[in-house]
Amino acid sequence: MRSIFSILLLTVIFCNTHAQIAADSIASRNWSLHAQATSIWQYHPSFNAPYTGTHSLLKDESGKVSFTATVFAGRRLWKYATLYFNPEVAGGSGLSSAMGVAGFPNGETFRIGSPKLKLYLARLYLEQKFALGAGKEVETDDLNQVQQHVPARYISVRAGKFSIADFFDNNSYSHDPRSQFMNWSLMSNGAWDYPANTRGYTVGAVVEYHTPNWATRIAMTQMPTYANGPVLDDHIGKAYGLTWEGEKNITMNKQPGTIRLLLFHSLAAMGNYKEAIQKDPSTPDITLVRSVPRTKNGIGISIEQAISKNAGIFIRSSWNDGRNETWAFTEIDQSVSAGMVWKGEAWSRRNDALGTAIVVNGISGPHRDYLKAGGSGFIIGDGALNYGHEAIFETYYKFNIPAIFLSISPDYQFVLNPAYNKDRGPVHIFGVRAHVEW
């Protein structure tokens, strides 16, 4: 434990010195080094719950705290090639052990495998760009981004261990629970059951064709050996995820925006909802019908648009076929979300931000029947189901204190029909996030 915080302290000292030396320079560098630490506290008052299942949000519980800390190290190796290395520590707990709401309120809890702090490797990957033409751009120093001059038009290959959400559905206003909305279904397309282990990471490769105005990328990555499992399956012929995305920059009223189309196909030994009910209609268990590899296919659309220099909006919509069980992310088969973010410069708080969003989640017919019969997934399962769409409202205010690299964000979430169950809730969730980034 002491060694972890010693590493973070040394990182802060290094990054402060590094920033002072080259604050005004745009010259290429060989190293990038940053760190972050995030703690989220959340609590909900008692709510209506005539019954509670094994995977329900508990009616009464104390507040819960999660913690993560990451070191982001990057080293330029040769022309347009960079190696990234991210050790990470995580611990704590989410409300009800991170169960009971499909759009779970704390986007950091999926990284937590144990209440005790544990150090592990989050990312280790190589990125190589291949220039297509003579134009150049500057990539500034950032998290997992070494400052350097890069081609304006290029093909890149990234290979190793990473989070696939690092490179896909990267919405500027709604993507990072460490600094933006905290809800799981506001981090990415909610129905995108993206390939990842318990902590949100996978192994594979991403190939991208990038131009100043549009880009397209495709990835092939590993799946976990079982639903929400910590170990990735090495049998790539029987378990893999394919993800494709097209991205186009747009302009509206002279303000920038981006539209993205996402397609995904997953193969793994998923259980089938209908087969689980046929096997045992009274207490179906999806884990008992995991045999042959099965597929999941889906689509997502994401739009972000600045409406002024201090405000922007986003809209997302996603769907998957919902025939087979959720394997990696969360139990959502359809999702629509929209929101708005204001920069604090509008009220003379240049580094602050205010965000407000709503998301509506749904599940397929077979998924509903399975939960209604008493089945559970790895996220939800009340033992019964009076189906209704899960609707979530979230708002946060980020107080930024640049002098000490700290932001404090009070957060409120209202959850209607948690786990798609009209018999339970609504739930009011109050939270506070502390985030330090160097």
UniProtKB/TrEMBL annotation:
Q: Which superkingdom?
A: Bacteria
UniProt keywords, alphabetically: Signal
The organism encoding this protein is Niastella vici
Which GO CC terms are listed, alphabetically? membrane
| The keyword Signal is annotated on this UniProt entry | yes
- Tell me which positions the record assigns to the signal sequence: 1-21
Q: Name one Pfam family in it.
A: OprB
Q: Does the keyword Cytoplasm apply?
A: no
Which named protein is this? Answer: Porin
The molecular function terms of the Gene Ontology recorded here are: porin activity
| InterPro entries for the chain | Carb-sel_porin_OprB (IPR007049), OprB_sf (IPR038673)
Name the protein family.
Belongs to the OprB family.
State the Gene Ontology BP annotations: carbohydrate transport
